[in-house]
Design goal:
The protein is of the alpha/beta class. The protein has 2 domains: about 210 residues, NAD(P)-binding Rossmann-like Domain (Rossmann fold, 3-Layer(aba) Sandwich), CATH 3.40.50.720; about 45 residues, no CATH class. Helix content is about 40%, strand content about 20%. It has 9 helices and 13 strands. A 7-stranded parallel beta sheet has the order 3-2-1-4-5-6-11, sandwiched between helices. The protein has a two-stranded parallel ribbon with strand order 7-10. Strand 5, helix 6 and strand 6 form a beta-alpha-beta unit.
Length: about 280
């Protein structure tokens, strides 16, 4: 079986991908800096799940640190690479834009360079539905223009797509960019709305509801995302970008109603204007 290097391996999507690949018999090395953007204990718990597999190795490293990434590539000699390491979150990019450039741009550059110099057969990398910005054409298509991002997070992901295209053109590197649409499921990130809402409603605290609840999202279950990533690993396209979504969008208020129903509690809502950087609707 192929050797696959997965960055962001202790993250939500990264852990699920590694686990699936390990169960299929791949040799997997995970890279993660285990940062404290959210509780590192959750990342440690995910990593513990991966350590149950003999075909898994872990390197604690930040992809923005080139020597560390170079050493991991040299020691493991991966045939394919999946880059899921990134500073996530649209709203946090308003507070700490430097973190997004360091991880999402400098870090991705390091991954590209290591893929180039270590004869990697294919790079699959995470992009985001955020690249569509305030696009009003529904559903979003990979043929739509993405030259008007409305957050630094989105801008960093667009830069990844352009950088990957350049490396495919210059060096023949096979690259596949996957625009993820609002991924949810077990082991999810605690900064996502459904987890924030569930915790606050459980504790009788008000929930922040932006754009007065007039928001829609294309929620995509984690297993479907993993299927898409693994298909991209197998196909190893030369230079492509795909949307990975559910192909339907749900109203935010409907999601809140489902949480209320599950908890047997009514939410106290703090209705607010839309936040800078947020989009009103996503639809793959």
């Amino acid at each position: 079986m192929e050797k696959i290097l997965v960055t962001g391996s202790s993250g939500f999507i990264g852990m699920h991908l590694c686990k699936s690949l390990l169960e299929d018999g791949y040799q997997v090395v995970g890279i993660d800096n285990m940062n404290d953007y959210y509780d590192p204990a959750l990342k440690e718990a995910r990593l513990k799940e991966l350590y149950l597999y003999d075909n898994f190795k872990f390197v604690k490293a930040d992809i923005s640190d080139y020597p560390s990434v170079e050493t991991a590539f040299k020691d493991f000699e991966p045939e394919k690479v999946v880059n899921l390491a990134a500073q996530a979150g649209v709203r946090y990019s308003l507070e700490n834009p430097q973190a997004y450039i360091q991880s999402n741009v400098v870090g991705f550059m390091n991954i590209l360079e290591c893929c180039r110099h270590h004869q990697v057969k294919g790079l699959i990398y995470a992009s985001s539905s955020s690249v569509y910005g305030g696009n009003e054409k529904i559903p979003f298509s990979i043929d739509d223009s993405v030259d008007r991002p409305i957050s630094i997070y989105a801008a960093s992901k667009i830069s990844n797509e352009l950088m990957a295209h350049t490396y495919s053109h210059l060096y023949g590197l096979h690259t596949t960019g996957l625009r993820f649409f609002t991924v949810y499921g077990p082991w999810g990130r605690p900064d996502m709305a459904m987890y924030i809402f569930t915790e606050k409603i459980s504790n009788d605290l008000p929930i922040p509801v932006f754009n007065y609840g007039k928001m829609q999202r294309d929620f995509t279950y984690i297993n479907d995302i993993i299927d898409g990533v693994k298909a991209s690993i197998d196909k190893n396209f030369f230079c492509e970008i795909f949307n990975l979504g559910n192909n339907r969008c749900e109203y935010l208020m409907d999601m809140i109603a489902l949480i209320e129903q599950s908890l047997g509690k009514k939410a106290e809502m703090n209705l607010m204007d839309i936040q800078p950087g947020d989009v009103k609707k996503t639809f793959a």
